[in-house]
Amino acid sequence: MRELDYNFAIERLTTFIREKAEETGVDGVVVGVSGGIDSATVAYLAAKALGKRRVLGLIMPYYENRDLDDARLVCESLGIDYKVINIRSIVDEFESAVGGLDTRSRGNVMARTRMVLLYAHANAMNRLVLGTSNRSEFLTGYFTKWGDGASDYAPLINLYKTEVWEIAKLLGVPERIIEKKPSAGLWEGQTDEDELGISYRLLDEILWRMVDLGMGNAEIARELGIGIEMVEYVENLVKKSEHKRRLPVGPVF
């Protein structure tokens, strides 16, 4: 993996957030706080950049589980204002209107419901929505289009998941948040690495070589001592999710 000066990265990130808030003339930011490391890191960065009074955390659970406690811990440890909005009734209304949803579709509705609530609060309060997606998720399409992938600015979008872990440690994010298994919280017991079929540490090593260095699949496999099938699997994730990284396109005339 690339070598980053993480203290410099934190300074760059906080400067970015501060500059964007000043450029747009907003009164602050809204962050969806899930109880995971990415949203915790963004909340910590935002509070560092703007001061805690200009950061609102929105906790939007569908399930009552440890994630809710962890999200509260993040907000309370920072001293930022936060609201808890249970989205179960909203999501269930969508499911009823559609006539039933499978697990993945329900998860996408959950993510898009959270996006709507984030923007409703941001509009009402003259604030920006800060996204929490990282580069690992962005490149593999591991996000909901127009859901958690939607925001005004995404501070972590050029940082791999393993790099976010290091930044979180320096920021003082609670240890239990850093050590928990990453999960999008789209269904009970779901974890990112189980769903992706690969650990973040290996995924990041492959993505960095493939996307940033432009190495070929065979070369990546040799350098990492893994089968080429795994590299091809990651390449396929990147290719098939290209549409998620772009605004809607149509033919050119």
UniProtKB/TrEMBL annotation:
Binding site for deamido-NAD(+): 112, 145, 152, 243-244
Pathway(s) this gene product operates in, as recorded in its UniProt entry: Cofactor biosynthesis; NAD(+) biosynthesis; NAD(+) from deamido-NAD(+) (ammonia route): step 1/1
GO MF, one example: metal ion binding
Residues that coordinate or bind ATP: 32-39, 132, 161, 183
EC number(s) from the headed UniProt entry: 6.3.1.5
A single GO cellular-component term on record: cytoplasm
Transmembrane spans: none
Keywords: ATP-binding, Ligase, Magnesium, Metal-binding, NAD, Nucleotide-binding
Domain NAD/GMP synthase: 10-248
Catalytic activity: deamido-NAD(+) + NH4(+) + ATP = AMP + diphosphate + NAD(+) + H(+)
Residues where Mg(2+) binds: 38, 137
Top-rank taxon, per record: Archaea
GO biological process: NAD+ biosynthetic process
Segments forming a coiled coil: none
Family: Belongs to the NAD synthetase family.
Function as written in the Swiss-Prot or TrEMBL entry: Catalyzes the ATP-dependent amidation of deamido-NAD to form NAD. Uses ammonia as a nitrogen source.
Quaternary state and interactors: Homodimer.
Name under which the protein is recorded: NH(3)-dependent NAD(+) synthetase
Organism, as annotated: Thermococcus barossii
Organism lineage string: Archaea, Methanobacteriati, Methanobacteriota, Thermococci, Thermococcales
